[in-house]
Specification:
By secondary structure, this protein is of the alpha+beta class. The chain has a single domain (2-109), classed as Alpha-Beta Complex (Ribosomal Protein L22, Chain A), CATH 3.90.470.10. Helices cover 34% and strands 41% of the residues. The protein has a three-stranded antiparallel beta sheet with strand order 1-3-2. Helix 2 (29-37) runs antiparallel to helix 3. It is elongated and about 65 Å long.
Length: 111
């Protein structure tokens, strides 16, 4: 049995988030929380919330033990891109993309 949590339309780029999520893949939940607490990045705070939600789903909905949980899957998908203008030199107009991402975390109990 596995529990899942998804956070959609987060205002952070997928590339920056993937750097952090690669560090917790296939780890025990307690190890993952320890890792995320020691990383000073915006993505770590967001991923910690999603992981906490997945653990709560496992405990409350499926009755799984928190100490036996590990991260079965975790991935980041790209969301929409808001295209904004940025004034450039000599009257030109540049583009500044605001990227969004979706974070998915699946936890399961170790056998």
């Amino acid at each position: 049995m596995e529990a899942k949590a998804v956070a959609r339309e987060l205002r952070i780029s997928a590339d920056k988030t993937r750097l952090v999520i690669d560090l917790i893949r296939n780890k025990n939940v307690t190890e993952a929380f320890d890792t995320l607490n020691n990383i000073n990045k915006k993505a770590s705070r967001i991923i910690k919330k999603v992981l906490d939600s997945a653990v709560a789903n496992a405990q409350n909905n499926l009755g799984l033990d928190k100490n036996k949980l590990f991260i079965k899957e975790c991935y980041v998908d790209e969301g929409q891109v808001l295209k904004r203008i940025k004034p450039d030199s000599r009257g030109h107009v540049g583009r500044k993309d605001r990227r969004y991402s979706h974070i998915t975390v699946v936890v399961s109990e170790k056998q």
